[in-house]
Write a structure and sequence with these properties.
The protein is α/β, with parallel strands linked by helices. Helices cover about 35% and strands about 20% of the residues. Strands 1-2-3-4-5-6-7-8 form an 8-stranded parallel beta barrel, surrounded by 6 helices. The chain has a two-stranded antiparallel sheet with strand order 9-10. The two termini are about 10 Å apart.
Length: about 220
Amino acid sequence: MTVKPRVKICCISSVAEAELAIRYGASALGLVSAMPSGPGVIDEGLIAEIAAYVPPPIATFLLTSQQDADSIIEQHRRLRTNTLQIVDRLERGTYADLRAALPGIRLVQVIHVTGEESVDEALAIAPQVDALLLDSGNQTLAVKELGGTGRTHDWTISRRIRETVSKPIFLAGGLKPNNLAEAIREVRPFGLDLCSGVRTEGKLDEAKLARFFECLAQA
């Protein structure tokens, strides 16, 4: 029997959006801090407000583009989510530094699936974090894409990563009701991460949200 994936709704921009996402069945919410590009960025005061409002056991993910462990630690101490989603490569400091400074905070590393090299990257990082999130960004551009692209990537590579690592896998990138069943069948992820697929002009769309969860129930 295939277990239905959990759902993370990203780019939450208000307490009202958080309530709407939770009401329809989201088990995690993404709160986007400063990024070089992409949708959903909100100020840190609002992130802290939403994170404080959302009740357990809902996961609150702070999306950070910081690449320095000390900066990530400082940012998290201001905002107090229960999960860190690191959307770029950690270049200074270590995951062990994050764990030591932020006990009990879950660490999720984004792997931007660009090719075979992404499998090796996932294998190297998985033992150090609590989960991986496979997305469709591009870190090589002059202005990095670190999420929210609305594009799918090669799900066969995502499936190989899921089969190879022992940690939970979230699948992100261009997920919509019409490709949901295929994504689940192809990758069998622990969780699904949505942003643009349930929004209209940047706002969380209740009709799209309802349709997505209906499709998920049938997938």
